[in-house]
Design goal:
The protein has two domains: 14-96, no CATH class; 113-314, Immunoglobulin-like, CATH 2.60.40. 22% of the residues lie in helices and 34% in strands. It has six helices and 13 strands. The protein has a six-stranded mixed β-sheet, with no helix packed on it. A four-stranded antiparallel β-sheet has the order 8-13-10-11, with no helix packed on it. Helix 1 runs antiparallel to helix 2. The two termini are 31 Å apart.
Amino acid sequence: MRLGERHTETEPAPALDAALRTGPFHLALRAAIAARRLPLHRVQHHLSRQGIKVGVTSLSYWQQGARRPQREESMRAVRALEEILELPEESLIRLLGPGERPVAPPRPAARSYRSLVEASGVLHRLLTELESPIDGGLHTVGHLERVRIGPRRELVGRDSQHIVRAHREGVDRYVAIHHGDPGCSPGDVAVEAMENCRTGRVCWDAGTGVLVAELLFDTRLRAGDTHMFRYGFEDGTAGASSEYVRGFSFAGGQYALQVRFTDDALPVRCHRFTQQSTAAPRVGRRELMLSGRHRSVHVVEQQVRAGLLGIGWDWE
């Protein structure tokens, strides 16, 4: 069906009619879209012509039952969908009755600039306690980081596969840093040395949620030697998470970040961003689409620059 055309049927098809009568909402919406044979990007286009902004990802989640419309703008979109899909008035809206709408948890609080500065000061103190300079004698060749978000929208944990090259003699450790979300209890975060390393000293600051951990190698590296190791942090102690940010003190090698969600807690949209520093504005924003059986998004930087790189997401 082209834009501006009206479907010749004036009554819903039987399967659609049944879905509109009994619900649930996502099945009725899916049946209506299928009956009109409109791809989601065309549905989105119809909505945008009415000044309503809803992403294709959100429409997909709605018809899968992974998310439900809740915000005022979303409810406007549902009423517009009734017209676009040539459905009886209130046929979709009534399936989102007050008794069926889930209560949206409060939006996660974004870290303030002050909290980031405080965390930076704490990190410097903790590194000093471990007698570890900012430049630990290692350059990153490659770093693959996987972040897992749980059913309560919390940061469950993350693990890293790291390849480094020593640029001075005698390097025998790497200091890993974990900055939990607001409300994190760093004393309850578990450090896991998974491959080619073992856990040494661990220090943390309860106020900022910053934790640093020594990962000890079984050998001392000579200048030019490379080393591959794997480690992780099991967290799950904070509230809802809305972003993951990785800071780089120096330019380096390749970095890949993957954020994985569960089917019980899927965001409505995701994006990547960069910052030159915590005080600088966020730039380089680009929308990311959830993909794969594991509901994940990722970014890959062939050559990282000093600064910050992250993935953010919206729950509502």
